[in-house]
Amino acid sequence: MNVILLSGGSGKRLWPLSNDIRSKQFIKFFKKPDGAELTDSESDSGYESMVQRVYRQLKAVDPNCMITVATSKSQVSTIHNQLGEDVGISVEPCRRDTFPAIALATAYLHDVQGVSEDEAVVVCPVDPYVNDDYFEAVRRLWELAGSGEANLVLMGIKPTYPSEKYGYIIPTDTAEVSRVSMFKEKPDMPNAWQYIDRGGMWNGGVFAYKISYVLDRAHELIDFADYAELFAKYDTLENISFDYAVAERESDIAVLRFNGEWKDMGTWNTLTEAMEENAVGDVRFSEDCKNVHAINELGIPILAVGLRDVVISASPEGILVSDKEQSSHIKPYVDAIDNQVMFAEKSWGNFQVLDIEEDSMTVKVTLRSGHCMNYHSHEKRDEVWTVVSGSGRTIVDGMEQPVSAGDVIAMAAGCKHTVIADTELQLIEVQLGSEISVKDKHKYELEL
Amino acid sequence: MNVILLSGGSGKRLWPLSNDIRSKQFIKFFKKPDGAELTDSESDSGYESMVQRVYRQLKAVDPNCMITVATSKSQVSTIHNQLGEDVGISVEPCRRDTFPAIALATAYLHDVQGVSEDEAVVVCPVDPYVNDDYFEAVRRLWELAGSGEANLVLMGIKPTYPSEKYGYIIPTDTAEVSRVSMFKEKPDMPNAWQYIDRGGMWNGGVFAYKISYVLDRAHELIDFADYAELFAKYDTLENISFDYAVAERESDIAVLRFNGEWKDMGTWNTLTEAMEENAVGDVRFSEDCKNVHAINELGIPILAVGLRDVVISASPEGILVSDKEQSSHIKPYVDAIDNQVMFAEKSWGNFQVLDIEEDSMTVKVTLRSGHCMNYHSHEKRDEVWTVVSGSGRTIVDGMEQPVSAGDVIAMAAGCKHTVIADTELQLIEVQLGSEISVKDKHKYELEL
Predict the structure, then answer these.
(1) pLDDT of residue B277 exceeding 90
(2) pTM, 2 dp
(3) Which of A319, A322, A366, A408 to mutate: most B Cβ within 10 Å?
(4) Which residues of A touch B15 (CB under 8 A)?
(5) Which residues of A touch B354 (CB under 8 A)?
(6) What is the SS3 string spanning chain B?
(7) ipTM over cut 0.90
């Protein structure tokens, strides 16, 4: 089976755990089942992220499943950290809507991965919280598209209530696989009831097609020869959704009815419903707390007393305390927060801002074994590294030197520097200067 | 007027802002009134603590008021930081109940401060939240005791509801100043109603007496010649309350009726009632938050959404989110938290733990201008200082050296070290070792 996982943008609806450079799909909320295979190269925390969970579930249904993640450049290192090096990644050079993203990923499958035009592929979002039966339905979708059932085969999710926030697929009949009569976006309550009466299903954004089908549509709308050319001109493409560009114009379209459990995890409210445990991290609840969830990524305890229907989430970015029902409305408040990025995963490890003063900033840097940061310099700040664990080598203005816990490296502004981790290595970096900025960074090729 | 302020123990009922070494009375919750004189030697934050507020209010009623704080050794430096050097302090060598503490402070007033036996003194707790009329009543109490109205003159607070958690003073009549008929501790609701019907008042723990009166009682119960001797044998004294040892045995006792506003601030619920603003620190509320208070001492924002009757409090010790009514029940949960002290005020400034790893700890140290830490060494850890602001001098194994922002000092285990701040000075201290403990510290005399 070929699968394109759409790993979308950052989003602030799960602030403070998601930020401009960390997205909800990478946060480890979910208790791993016993015996689950490790997919990440990090040490095993006992928890997995949305993208790790979906990846694991797909591999359980089809161990040979070829998974390609369609995503932005900023997520590439995190995806490799969490899923390993085997996963395919279709990198979007800039943010566009779903049609360009799916066209690019499809061209990548064909031109880079060598998948035949006749093979089918299933597109899945990365953020539903579902069981294995959902992935059985995903495979069924792939088979239906491969056997020519229709040009486009969608998954329809049997509604559990007349939601006003989902799109509906209205079928021509109530068979398990039927033709699609029409699409309806986010109806009001009476219309939602009516669609359900007619056998309408939620559109979960899962669909299958043959590679040739989407390549043909793409060539109709975009002038390009192959993947390389499409990639090169990606920033010139129109911002247009797959639904609008393809699905709504297609007449040969079928829907597979899925009756199993399905939760989307776009808000704290729906996400916490999917958590098996009420707490992740150091959290204590009084006995009278009811329906309270807390996720704590800080090194200090959270104590929740006498609360009901509340979500608490703490990260180096900030602390959210929200009524669950109201948690879908946090975005405007989060937008108003001036968001200094306090934590980020990088290809080489991660960093966490510990302290900010007027003329200094203190950061904890963790490098994964065998990795190094870019060789770089800063114009307007000095830096001091104190290695606190592990061993490796620093290169400062071309001079290589072994370092281990206790070593101190002072670097004046302008000097080129990097550190190579021979084991996992942690250091405390003190930045000193009156104009400390992430933009003050010049990268160099490392000449070894 | 002579006043003894009882500045009691640490208490965990206002966790995470109070801890084993920082007590609620030193936390700056309260917006300073415009034009209020600065009593502390720190920079002006616009907020004042309970002890600063009471001190300011006493000085407003009587600018010549002689104030002595009865407290433990661990609070001395914080009291000087907040109230300056002029305040008298009666240091309790160890923790005992109120009778030994008041006897010691009274002997201190007489023997150290030279207050005459015939003068009166008023004892006040440090934690009621009250207006100036309360301090007018305090002065009245002092005058009544000085004029020989009774051996002991208490303040009775007119109850606003039949509380079950306060002690009651039952007078013989309803005059403004009357004799005391009896004391009743924490009655049930029907009895509380009955006491109020009889003109009963809450016992706010404020009382006045002549110095000679308490010294006489003390000599009856304890064998001592003067303050120095009482101080020296303090740890051998019986743990006994002033109420039990003195008030309940005294027949010549009067009560002054106080009709003004009075709030004790023992729990988050009562404390937040006294806050003029809903937030201290970086806090954002959604518009539908009702009766929510938040105090944020962390460098990251708190966002509260859709909450009602909740208090949020965040410090380097931890994060509390509690229903206000339930906030008086946090103690057992706080007791269960293994409390590494993450922040402390010292005579020379303060420190804040930024990060704890298995074999390292990162601390931000702030020294006040003109101060220095003890000259000391550690057996089992190395330390690295990076000065991030200010200037001063380090002394390492006897060698003095000027330092300023950007300087790095590496100190191996065993070496003696200190830093002297010539301006306010901040440094990041990285501690390295497998057995990092606050107990691993040897102090030395500084030989300059």
Answers:
(1) no
(2) 0.75
(3) A319
(4) 303
(5) 354-355, 362
(6) CEEEEECCCCCCCCCCCCECCECHHHCEEEECCCCCCCCCCCCCCCEEEHHHHHHHHHHHHCCCCEEEEEEEHHHHHHHHHHHCCCCEEEEECCCCCHHHHHHHHHHHHHHHCCCCCCCEEEEEECCEEECHHHHHHHHHHHHHHHCCCCCEEEEEECCCCCCCCCCEEEECCCCCEEEEEEEECCCCHHHHHHHHHCCCEEEEEEEEEEHHHHHHHHHHHCCCCCHHHHHHCHHHCCCCCHHHHCHHHCCCEEEEEECCCEEECCCHHHHHHCCCCCEECCEEECCCCEEEEEEECCCCCEEEECCEEEEEEEECCEEEEEECHHHHHCHHHHHCCCCCCCEEEECCEEEEEEEEECCEEEEEEEECCCCECCEEECCCCEEEEEEEECEEEEEECCEEEEEECCCEEEECCCCCEEEEECCCEEEEEEEECCCCCCCCCEEECCCC
(7) no
